[in-house]
Design a protein that fits this description.
Elements (H helix, E strand, L loop, with lengths): L1 E7 L1 E9 L3 H11 L13 E10 L4 H4 L7 E8 L4 E9 L3 E10 L18 H9 L3 E17 L2 E15 L11 E2 L4 E9 L4 H10 L8 H8 L18 H10 L4
Antiparallel strand pairs: 1-6, 2-10, 3-4, 3-7, 4-5, 5-6, 7-8, 8-9, 8-10
Length: 256
């Protein structure tokens, strides 16, 4: 399966909150938004994900150098599925483009080849990571609840992530729940929409006292593993949920 999606004026805002608020936030999400129908559990909205994030030896993605600041490459596996998703996300101020190809789990070893194979369905992904000198740097795993809905400006999506763990790229990929804990006793709430923040998410922020934070699981994972990285003092600074802050958070590009 190969899919492509392009969204104009796509926006993503994140909140970091304590785990003790998570049950109430999940209940609110289930009451106000629908399920995408692909998750597990009674509500068909629960996922266990394990993702390999790609980076260069010089950490160009982390530093957002040139085009590395607009594109992210990763491989994601859900639960114990025997398929994986090769993904590229490309973002500018105007649009978000995502390409995703499903391949068998056994095909992961193909990415170690020195040359891309045009006959393989993952050729486009393999060719790009070779050209950009990207390699899988870390593994991130977490538990997610995901809900979807509609708004006057288009579809919306909300995710609540907890139990975040990071590993340096292991000898055997996809080890869910293993590694160093990120954000420990907190969870990440993320809302995705187009153009203007929908009223339903303003209600969410007000009801639970949530503050916008520019936070990236990928960046936090690299830092926790003590790589020699430059610091960015404005990350994790809490700000009120306003349209100005929304635009600023988006422009920084701290997206996963």
């Amino acid at each position: 399966m190969d899919s492509r999606e392009t969204r104009d004026w796509a926006r993503e805002v994140k909140f970091v909150t304590s785990l003790d608020k998570r049950p109430q936030i999940v209940d609110w999400a289930r009451a106000n938004l629908g399920s995408d129908g692909h998750g597990a559990g009674v509500y068909a909205d629960e996922y266990t994900t394990c993702t390999l994030y790609f980076e260069t030896p010089d950490f160009d993605v982390y530093q957002q150098n040139k085009s590395y600041g607009r594109s992210k490459f990763r491989i994601r596996r859900y639960g114990t599925s025997d398929v994986i998703f090769l993904e590229r996300k490309f973002r500018t101020e105007r649009l978000l483009a995502k390409r995703r190809t499903t391949v068998p789990l056994a095909d992961l070893e193909r990415l170690g080849a020195p040359n891309a194979d045009p006959a393989w369905s993952g050729y486009w992904f393999q060719r790009r990571i070779l050209l950009r000198k990207l390699q899988p740097m870390i593994q991130l795993s977490y538990d997610r609840v995901a809900r979807i809905g509609d708004s006057p400006t288009g579809p919306v999506r909300m995710t609540i992530d907890m139990n975040l763990n990071v590993l340096p790229m292991p000898d055997r990929a996809f080890l869910p729940g293993v590694g160093m804990r990120i954000l420990d006793d907190r969870c990440i709430v993320e809302v995705k929409y187009r153009k203007q923040l929908p009223a339903v998410f303003k209600e969410l922020s007000e009801k639970f006292g949530l503050q916008v934070q520019k936070v990236s699981k990928f960046r936090n994972g690299l830092r926790l593993l003590d790589y020699p990285l430059p610091t960015n003092d404005d990350e994790h600074v809490e700000q009120p949920l306003t349209e100005a802050v929304d635009a600023a958070a988006h422009a920084q590009g701290y997206w996963d």
